[in-house]
Amino acid sequence: TANAQLSRVVGAAKNETPQSRTFIRGIQTVTLIPGDGIGPEISNAVMKIFEAAKAPIRWEERNVTAIRGPGGKWMIPPDAKESMDKNKIGLKGPLKTPIAAGHPSMNLLLRKTFDLYANVRPCVSIEGYQTPYTDVNLVTIRENTEGEYSGIEHVIVDGVVQSIKLITEQASKRIAEYAFEYARNNQRASVTAVHKANIMRMSDGLFLRKCREAAEKYKDVKFTEMYLDTVCLNMVQDPTQFDVLVMPNLYGDILSDLCAGLIGGLGVTPSGNIGANGVAIFESVHGTAPDIAGKDLANPTALLLSAVMMLRHMGLHGHAKKIETACFDTIRDRKVLTKDLGGNSKCSEFTEAICQRMKDMD
Amino acid sequence: MTTRSVRALSGALKPLFSPRSPQGYVVAVCHQTHKSTYTAPPARYGGRHTVTLIPGDGIGPELAKHVCELFRFCCVPVDFEVVNVDSTETSEDDINNAIMAIRRNGVALKGNIETNHNLPPSYKSRNSLLRTTLDLYASVMHCQSLPGVRTQHRNIDIITIRENTEGEYSSLEHENVPGVVESLKIITRTKSLRIADYAFRTAREKGRRRVTAVHKANIMKLGDGLFLECCKEVASGYPEITFDSMIVDNTTMQLVSRPQQFDVMVMPNLYGNVVSNVCAGLVGGPGLVPGANYGENYAVFETGTRNTGKSIANRNTANPTAMLLASCLLLDHLKLHGYASMIRKAILSTITDSRVRSHRCYMQYVGGIQLLLLRPALYFDITLNMSSPLCSSCTLLIWEVRAPHLKWSSPSWMQSRALDLAHRGTRNQMTVRLYL
Hints:
heterodimer; A: alpha/beta; Isopropylmalate Dehydrogenase; ten-stranded mixed beta sheet; two-stranded antiparallel sheet; 14 strands; about 45% helix; about 25% strand; globular; B: alpha/beta; eleven-stranded mixed beta sheet; three-stranded antiparallel beta sheet; disordered N terminus; IsoPropMal-DH-like_dom (chain B); tricarboxylic acid cycle (chain B)
């Protein structure tokens, strides 16, 4: 009844629980961070495509620049933080890292703020963008908070530098469980832990132990362990043998970029960061490309595929499938492609082609 | 051998077939290399070198056997001192014996020794122990596309030079708080300068144009920053060689999309592991690429990707190419260039010969190499005992040849056909090289 509805809305407005606000009328609000360089153009492209697909998403645009908070610590603007905390899901374009700005990179700040512990990168070969490797279908899940990138370094004596690689039980447990959870939710057959425990016995040994423990809880997913060098060797010979890979930070960085290279580079690779408290930020991992910014030449595929990943994360599989199919069909057609994919079209034309295809599908 | 040296040497032949003693000959003929800084490798007695052989685990023993067999067949003047290292033993006696043997002989050929990573951290990786104790600071892997091998990329020619003793492989770990493990990665100025200098020297010697340093200095500013700084410093002393640097994740991406852009790559330990394995995979896999570890005083040769190959052990399917090419590198190091190039040519011809490849059986594969060595296109050595014109081992070789165009009727063919002489051999032995 009207009264009940009114009281519910009023109650929601007073309560400020995030869930009720974002699920009004089935439309989900997502924080959109356009980014720098080509960021705004590709974000616009994605918004247009989502509109054409009639996806129930409402975008809330925010900008992130590092600002000095109280106490001198660098942080992201409070309205961006608030929006993310409320919406829990974000889509981010490329952010530039100024070299001598004195503040750490924006990606690092975001990661620290929202405790984004897992970086997920599904690498699937794109039909229509030929690379020497076909039939790649794997997912790299990388621990994103600790490991070699802890940033703890000291000069012991002049000429001797020590970098500390930190592996904790809690973080390893968290990432291992996430990996198995992901494998189960996405119907993946096996999870492979990548390590170098023959050399780094204690640190990677701890990581491996936690992965084994998580494997016990998820008996329906097969678990294997492989040395980093063996994985690299086999990856470039036959990438079809891998399914889900889980690893600490450095190996994950290298391997996820290796896999991105297998399918065609960072311009077509989606990526998602999962954080504590249900936060998830999906992003495109390529750079800001300042040389083509504003010229309508950018390729929105990476951001688009990340947005599709986001839809899947939210459970909107139908819309995800529709947009993904339209995108892949357009690329496979090879009629309207941006310059980096080998064509000559503009970003807007590419976007238009995808929207048209989706309209035809309905 | 050049025809010039051959003709010059044929003049030296005459006195040898006379019944005088061959003493004068041993001094006169020397077709070895010409560097004034050449010092004979140690453990060379009576013209024969002693080399430590560590079979290792998995496919190691089989591959070691192939090498021994091939060397015996080619009459390579190398004796192997076999030292077994048992990886299941927790005491370090075995590996210390091996290290002592290598110190004695100066060179070694080794298979990979397995490290059971479920053992406690007090059990250090045997391979790592060997490398750090002997200070084998440079691990060099030359990845080249081989003509008969089908891969996704063609025309790859990359030399990866990896710092072998420090970096992430320092094995310094501790657990201060339960559940929190710290592993130390050490980068020092002296070792970084040393490896950078080695890289540039190698690039200069081999006529390479470009050296790329692989690092992650945007994240590990102090550690990899120091490495990069040292490389830049050394680069300034080699103006003819272009130096650039690349971040490791970008490097791997470029390697799988366009590997032809790389020439010589120098990097710290862990990145070296990743990049060298990627390069090995690009040219055809772990069975094809040899690796070498060089130190100031010692050299150890092994397969490039250091796999134990447990899953294919004892099944007659391991590809011996990597180990055989490593033995060629060993021969080059011992300045036995003739044997090295002979074996190398035979191996490469065998790889391109699809008949042999299709067999997938190592015995026939190695047999194929032996077959090619006897083929008319090459030469082979016969060791003769001076007391009698044909020694027993020589007879065996001749019987195995079956080449119809050679006349085996009388020893006089040796006088007319022998064109070159090797000075290997003891006083009562002489090795004749026959060009067929």
